Amino acid sequence: MSLVTLAGVGVRFGAQTVLHDVDFHIERGEIVTIVGPNGSGKSTLLRVLIGAQRPSAGRVTPAPGLRVGYVPQKLHIDPTLPLTVRRFLDLPRRIPDAVAAEALAQAGAGELGLRQMADLSGGQFQRVLLARAILSRPDLLILDEPTQGLDQPGSAAFYRRIAEVRAELGCAVLMVSHELHVVMAASDRVICLNGHVCCAGHPEQVASAPEYRALFGTGTQGALALYRHEHAHSHDHDHPNPHTHEAAE
Amino acid sequence: MTGFLDDFLIRATLAGIGVALAAAPLGCFIVWRRMAYFGDATAHAAILGVAMALAFNLSIMLGTLVMALAMAMAVSTLSGRGRAVDTLLGVMSHSALAAGLVAVSLLQGVRIDLSAYLFGDILAVGRLDLAVIWGGVALVLGLVWARWSALLTATLSPDLATAAGIDPRREQLILTLALAVVVAVAIKVVGALLIAALLVIPAAAARVFSATPEGMALRASAIGAGSALVGMGAAWRFDTPAGPSIVCVAAAVFAASALVDLARRAA
């Protein structure tokens, strides 16, 4: 059975509908990437999956005993809070030193145990978050724009790291990403989200789908020249009001 | 032991140390979560609680506990809805204080020394007071001890906490409850105006010397208790008010810690 299945999930904040009619599933061991313009509900979907956001419609069905590792989009640690990397891994449950050392090594943060969290660089910080997420040997690793704030080589290295972690742990990986060129190379499946699932499938399949092109542009530049588009595309699902998206970066 | 507790100075000192011990670890969370003003608002509401207790002939501690809890819950709920928390706290904190002062003055036939509630009246701590204070201290320390990891995780990131099966709203509620208890037992020791100082100053002073959250909480407790001890001694010797003297000693420790920090950065 699937690790998690979402059926007809919708999320509303007051009068605003962030997600509607989302059907989604993820299988053991696959890498799935969610792409979509800003405000398309990507982070909200992840928060539904980790249980931080209750859906206002639909059903979320996790596999029995599912272990989820979560790397949040951003984590601000107040400088008034003294916290070593090693102690951070002990939250909320203390873990043996050997387990911590192994997770840090797998995440490429082996040297950082004694450092203060507040002193880490962006890349180091992300690797420590990854180490924490894989401590519990998760079946499903969820990452919300894990390379935000990293430079190009930094984020390429981080995605390689994630592929290695998947190979070692055999976990499924679900992530949100803005970096489509990386996504296309590294994912088994891509889900294009814009309030609902516009299209989904193998990266090549999605890249040639009209819905995807409507969101992200066409041709070979599609991967990069994506961030300005008219969202008046037509497909099976009707959008109540066509509107323009503009995404940052 | 009975003879020992007969001395009002001993009772006062024990009360001061107890409140400082409970306030310090809680103060660490207030500092980490940037809730200093939250402590202020809760403490100021206690004056309204004093007025209520006098009007309905209840125990002062019960009145302050109820009002502090109501205020803390109100602020905690409203701030969760994305309002301008800073302004909101400023409005509620000072409104509660003003309303409390007006309400006390309107009470017929009650003659009380208001400054005892504003600045504390630690030398008037009786045996029963002492028992209630240490009961409250034990409750707060027990709560914080039992929930330490969950509180810390929720403080770092509500989403990380949720992903680990911790309900961040429940942890917030526990902090709120603990804060109301500290306010209720501390009002006699340092008074409503200075409770927030006892929460925040020892924690801020301990930051410089600490590498882990636990270390910071322990050092804050030590600084708080030491300030209570030295402050009481100074108050006796120089005939100064006890609550403010305790806070002054804590502030001096903070100033020293800031100098140490400065010297370290320069080195």
UniProtKB/TrEMBL annotation, chain A:
Entry keyword Membrane: yes
Key words, A-Z: ATP-binding, Cell membrane, Ion transport, Membrane, Nucleotide-binding, Translocase, Transport, Zinc, Zinc transport
List each copy of the ABC transporter domain by range: 4-219
Which molecular function terms from Gene Ontology are attached?
A: ATP binding; ATP hydrolysis activity
Report the InterPro entries cross-referenced here.
AAA+_ATPase, ABC_transporter-like_ATP-bd, ABC_transporter-like_CS, Metal_Ion_Import_ABC, P-loop_NTPase
According to its UniProt entry, one GO biological process term is: response to zinc ion
Q: Name the domain of life this protein comes from.
A: Bacteria
Q: Which Pfam families match?
A: ABC_tran
- Please state what the protein is called: Metal ABC transporter ATP-binding protein
Species, as recorded: Roseicyclus persicicus
Read off the lineage from the record. Answer: Bacteria, Pseudomonadati, Pseudomonadota, Alphaproteobacteria, Rhodobacterales
From TrEMBL, chain B:
Alphabetically ordered keywords of this record? Cell membrane, Ion transport, Membrane, Transmembrane, Transmembrane helix, Transport, Zinc, Zinc transport
- Can you cite an annotated GO cellular component? ATP-binding cassette (ABC) transporter complex
Location of this chain's protein in the cell: Cell membrane
Give the transmembrane region(s): 12-32, 44-75, 87-107, 128-148, 177-204, 216-236, 242-263
Which Gene3D superfamilies does the record associate with it? ABC transporter involved in vitamin B12 uptake, BtuC
Membrane topology of the entry? Multi-pass membrane protein
Matches recorded under InterPro entries: ABC_BtuC-like, ABC_TroCD
**One GO term (biological process):** response to zinc ion
- A Pfam match: ABC-3
Main subcellular location:
membrane
Write out the similarity annotation: Belongs to the ABC-3 integral membrane protein family.
What PANTHER family would the database entry show? ABC-TRANSPORTER METAL-BINDING PROTEIN, HIGH-AFFINITY ZINC UPTAKE SYSTEM MEMBRANE PROTEIN ZNUB
The UniProt function text for this chain reads: Involved in the high-affinity zinc uptake transport system.
Protein name as it appears in the record: High-affinity zinc uptake system membrane protein ZnuB
